[in-house]
Amino acid sequence: MRINPQLLEKIRESLSSVLPITAIVLLLSITAVPLTPGTLVLFLFGAVLLIVGLGVFTLGVDLSMTPMGSGIGVYMSRSRHMAVPLAAAFVLGVIITVAEPDLTVLAQQVEAIPSTVLILTVAAGVGAFLVIALMRVMLKIPLSRLLVGFYLVVFALALFAPRDFIPVSFDSGGVTTGPITVPFIMALGVGLASVRSDKNSTSDSFGLVALCSIGPILSVLILGICYSPDSAMYTPAALPDIATTRDAAAEFAAAMPHYAREVLVSMVPICAMFLLFQLMTRRFKRKQLLRIVSGLVYTYVGLVCFLTGVNVGFMSAGQLIGASIAQGERPFLLIPIGMLMGYFIVAAEPAVHVLIKQVEEVSMGSISQTSMRQALSIGVALSVGIAMLRVLTGISILWFLVPGYAVSLALTFFVPQLFTGVAFDSGGVASGPMTATFLLPFAMGACAEVPGSNLMTDAFGLVALVAMTPLVTIQLMGLAGRLRRKLATGALHAEMARVRDCVYYYDFEEGGV
């Protein structure tokens, strides 16, 4: 049986992405942070599922989500009656958010507000801001203006929200942009902007994920103000008892049907919308449809494997590593070890692979995958370092979010628009399932062992920080590129002027000009 060469290439790429974080955990387990054999076996099994699942998923996205989203975006941009497409976008935003597995996990952890109320509130925020994002592309409104306006509202509301709900509200902006919704929404933006021929069409293809991440933050802040709960309690997950490799395999076998149902529920709304779109427009031919269907199968199988591996294999390892370091004689090691893991773990986020590839294609190679990956890794490393500092000291998250967003919003006026859209989209993409199931348990395990710490205020907020720092690092990359081009242009003009002077002097010596 001949294996698809594209699939082999994707698996090789995922191997290079997952291998570094696997090697770091293995090294820690035999040096500073000994892990129990059961936890280590779960982690290794999970790493194998991650490698296979990530490779299959990224191939599936290339075959299905990207052409689906782009095709629907092109149709919406050419529609004469925008009310129906915008209404469909709102409904789609609500449905895909309700089906997002990470949001359900977050809602169950916030016991002071009923899960259904929290999920529906966040879903309404995503739906409303998806409509705003689409209208921005159609009306050619600069992204920076909307970002500045809405984040001013966010921080104004944060002054009145309960202290325990501020980290949770910012975290909700990260968990709602999941590995299924992000590729579809990004492709939708590319399709919307592709029919335009103005100079800003390329930059306007990004920014949908950025705006969709603001809606949940606003909605949860408003919900916290309206409910005015005394606290938001959190109950950590119990660690499985693993004695043999058979027990480890049984854990994965028992969990896989659960994640298979979750992924199916998440994909059904997008598939239903695409089916309705195809029946109405007949845009895709038979061969294209078969390709998309096969891509959806790849996407489904890959994401089930990935989520099973990361939730079962990585969560317990992250929690134990964090707790072990915090219990040790040098708890300050949480900061450098957390930064090291954050630097490498972002490469294993499924949606990151989709983002950096799409950025390189849309920018026609001016923003390479290597530079994007480097900027994201630096940003996530900084965010995890800050999160560990907060665990150890209890510093309020607002002391980092307010200046961080102030700098990122100020940079929007100095960098090319393309970098602004890419940077703010990257924030939602970087805070994916790897962050929620490894880095967040790492912070919670550490926080549980630090005397006087509060899980809700000190551990929560890590996702929010992971979503914030790439906004700065990627825009700084764009600013550095602009300065380099300016210096190179200045040097070229100076050289041309020198050559002209030399020619003039030569002609004059020979007998005049």
Characterization of the model:
Helix 2 runs parallel beside helix 11, helix 4 crosses helix 5 and helix 5 runs antiparallel to helix 10. The protein contains 20 helices and no strands. It is mainly alpha-helical.
Features of the shown structure:
mainly alpha, 513 residues
Sketch the topology as an H/E string, one letter per element. HHHHHHHHHHHHHHHHHHHH
Distance between the termini: 77 Å
* Approximate helicity band: over 70%
Strand content: under 5%
In DSSP terms, counting alpha (H) and pi (I) runs of 4 or more, how many helices? Answer: 20
Radius of gyration: 24 Å
Task: Quickly describe the structure.
The chain has 513 residues and is an all-alpha fold. Helices cover 80% and strands 0% of the residues.
Please render the helix and strand layout as text.
Blueprint: H1 5-29, H2 37-78, H3 83-98, H4 101-109, H5 115-139, H6 143-158, H7 165-175, H8 181-194, H9 201-204, H10 208-227, H11 245-281, H12 286-327, H13 334-345, H14 350-362, H15 369-393, H16 398-411, H17 417-430, H18 433-449, H19 455-459, H20 462-510
